[in-house]
């Protein structure tokens, strides 16, 4: 089966920029109290194994591990996975796609897509959310981070390299509707204005939702 074109272009783009991306964002969390606060809330609430889907060089996985979360990473880009394994040797990282996660049903307590859903076309969100719903146990948490908006941005140069990739600004209300259709219940919604013009051109959004149903230990 031929994979969707956006997967091929996104993989190639992140393979190209992997090492420079990791260097550029290595200390970014230290300068973003809002990001740390959202991740801290997720870490405090989640119970069980967590998948960082679209983990890139593993910086969010590493932060969550430092907060005591049993986390592992999945990324489309083999080069990103190689960097993540180099920088965070105590965490497991594998190549994979959020469209088809190689994980058993109801096997996770939590999952997050930290600025990784932004490369998925809107019409494929139901496929992604169905996969997250499948792998999460009842009561499991899903955290999304994204740029707020409704347009598509074509990226042709990033981190010192010429690339081709599309990045979608996302509407929180529309996302919540899609997530509800997939069987998720809202928990926390945060939006903030762009804080650093070097990295952010639009407001930033965070959605924390819960798979309907009671945890098995409840």
Automatic annotation (TrEMBL):
Domain called Methyltransferase: residue spans: 50-140
Keyword entries, A-Z: Methyltransferase, Transferase
Keyword Kinase: no
Keyword Methyltransferase in annotation: yes
GO biological process: methylation
Family matches, as Pfam families: Methyltransf_25
Gene Ontology molecular function: methyltransferase activity
InterPro entries documented for this protein: Methyltransf_25 (IPR041698), Methyltransf_Superfamily (IPR050508), SAM-dependent_MTases_sf (IPR029063)
Protein name as annotated: Methyltransferase family protein
Species whose genome carries this gene: Saccharothrix saharensis
Lineage per the UniProt record: Bacteria, Bacillati, Actinomycetota, Actinomycetes, Pseudonocardiales
């Amino acid at each position: 089966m031929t994979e969707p074109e956006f997967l091929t272009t996104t993989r190639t783009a992140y393979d190209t920029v992997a090492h420079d991306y990791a260097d550029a964002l290595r200390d970014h969390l230290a300068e973003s109290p809002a990001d740390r606060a959202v991740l801290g809330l997720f870490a405090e609430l989640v119970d069980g194994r967590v998948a960082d889907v679209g983990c890139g060089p593993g910086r969010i996985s590493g932060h969550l591990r430092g907060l005591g979360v049993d986390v592992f990473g999945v990324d489309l880009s083999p080069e990103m996975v190689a960097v993540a394994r180099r920088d965070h040797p105590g965490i497991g990282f594998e190549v994979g796609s959020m469209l088809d996660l190689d994980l058993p049903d109801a096997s996770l307590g939590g999952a997050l897509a930290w600025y990784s859903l932004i490369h998925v076309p809107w019409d494929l969100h139901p496929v992604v959310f169905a996969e997250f719903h499948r792998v999460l146990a009842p009561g499991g948490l899903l955290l999304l981070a994204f740029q707020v908006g409704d347009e598509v941005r074509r990226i042709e140069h990033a981190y010192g390299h010429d690339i081709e990739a599309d990045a979608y600004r996302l509407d929180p209300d529309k996302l919540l509707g899609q997530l509800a259709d997939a069987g998720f219940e809202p928990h926390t919604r945060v939006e903030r204005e762009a804080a650093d013009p070097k990295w952010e051109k639009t407001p930033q959004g965070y959605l924390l939702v819960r798979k309907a149903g009671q945890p098995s230990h409840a």
